[in-house]
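Notebook B, p. 112. Complex prediction, attempt 2.
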Amino acid sequence: MRSALVGVEQPQAGDAALVERARAGDRDAFARLIAPRVDGLYRTAWAVLRNEDQARDVTQETCVVAWRELGRLRDPGRFDAWLGRSLINRCRTALRTTRRARLREIRVEDWSGDAAESVSDPRAEAAFDAIADAESVRAAFRRLSVDHRTLIILHHVQGRQVQDIAELTGVREGTVKWRLSEARKALERALEEETR
Amino acid sequence: MTRRSIVLADYLIRRALAPTPDVIPPATLLEAILADVAITRPRRRIVAWPWTPETPGQSWRSTPAGRVAWAGIVVALLAAAVVGVVAALAQLHQPPGPLGGRILMYSDHGALFAVAPDGSDPFLVQDLDPWGDPAWAPDGSRFVIVAGSDEGLRLEIRGADGQVEAILRLPARSGTIGIANWSRDGSRIAVTVSVRGINRMIVYDVDDLDAEPVDVTPPGVAVERSRVPAAWSPDGRSLTFVAQDVHSGAEALWVAAVATGSARVVVAAAQSFDVGLGTGDSVAAWSPAGSLIAFEAHDLYGTTTFVVQPDGHGLRRIAPELALTASPQWSPDGARLLFESRRTGREAGNEAWTIGADGSDLVLVMPDGQPRGWSPDGWVLGLSPTCASGINYGAAERCRQDLFLVPATGVASLDDPRVRRLLSADQIDGLLGPNRTGLLQELGWPGTLLGGDASDD
């Protein structure tokens, strides 16, 4: 069964033939190949980027570039891994570039001193010690680097194994393990900062 | 106040971050993709072999057309071999280094490449691990880079040829490493290192790597997790960075004396604005004469830029008529400040502006593009977005980019004949190779950007 969360689907029977046809320029074959994958790709991009517009753009760009570059894929059986890596790379680019641009606009009506007051409320701190609030985790997640975000989504949310992530991200398994640990610590530290 | 130590359970991470069932792609997304596909051609097609033998075992070369084709192939191969030999010989006579004087660029996928200031002779210097973040020594002879391994992160000094020259000692229990920054004379490196969860500003003496690195972080504060390096003063005696009080969370612009480690607040957050951006990538830049510091802040409307004297006097916001201003960089002569802006309500694309050091003479240098620094002769280095046709990009920064220089007096459009085009997006893609985008994260001349002090010339 296909998980709605997973952006890179398990290869289905006949997919390799579709990849071959698409590589030869068959647009219908590409459409049949990509249609069942768009949902998962979008959800993966959304999970990393936490932004609908960016997720849409990244998904669209990944698919269109896949069509354009499909001739360079040597092994049709690795289409999904190739597509997934492309998506992750584009998420990284979107995040890094967004951070690089650095110009941020906030709506005046969103500005309020209430947030600072609530953090200093001792009752809120006590409540947090009991259970990590999901919203705080999401806010902490937004503080993370691109690489940390990606790893946390792939492993902790999508449940991907280290070997799978190594293939997607193009690094060795041992490195993935270490980076996963670092990413998790970073999230915990960010959560501490978020709730301080 | 004691620090909490939070350990997150897997299920909490999953619960908080997993997309909810209502996270679904827009109904028009697949349609938009297929519309793009319909007007986009694959870059390379596999073409069916057009010839079948009339008799078993017949070679295609035995046909008249086959003989002509075979002769063509042989001639083409010979020509290619000759060209290859000539190119190899030319390469022997023109090695990539030294890199000094070239524009150095670092892509979002860890590729480091260089191009001559006139746009000629671009080449890939190295493919670096994506951890990357190289910072070039002012003379371009070597760089410092964050490298990852199974054992953890480390900070390496490498020569321009990529060979590791030294590994810098990190403090015990160190974690994340920010972007390093060389002092103007190339003798020291400052870098943000997370030590036991608190970001510290560490300074290395490059001429004496056996010496203990110096922690110049003021007590009770954490340096902003820095994607942009701290700024060295022109005389190399002081470092400026944004740091946060670990108890109150208030951010301030600090100046630390490297020799003594003493530090003081130059600008504290005020009722009307916060110092820094609160995102770990706030820029501060000393003017070349050391008389002013430009820094980013955050006010009611978003990112803004201020200048202040190093003693804290003379604080003023630059270009108050522009709602959003960021990324200040001083011209080599210190007379003008380059920054980027995006007018409120504008959906995409930034503008490059300059303003006199005294706050007068605001000039729009470049519409629709990102300024990335000054050339040594006072031109503005910029990147323009180039959106591939048929792809509905939502924001300019996600488009492919051209690299160019514009005169500091400004141009109305990038079609102005005075604009010097250095590299096209296609050329950048060609340098990077297949399946990679050409988005550039950092670039500039050694000592001006790419981890160098943006205020230095």
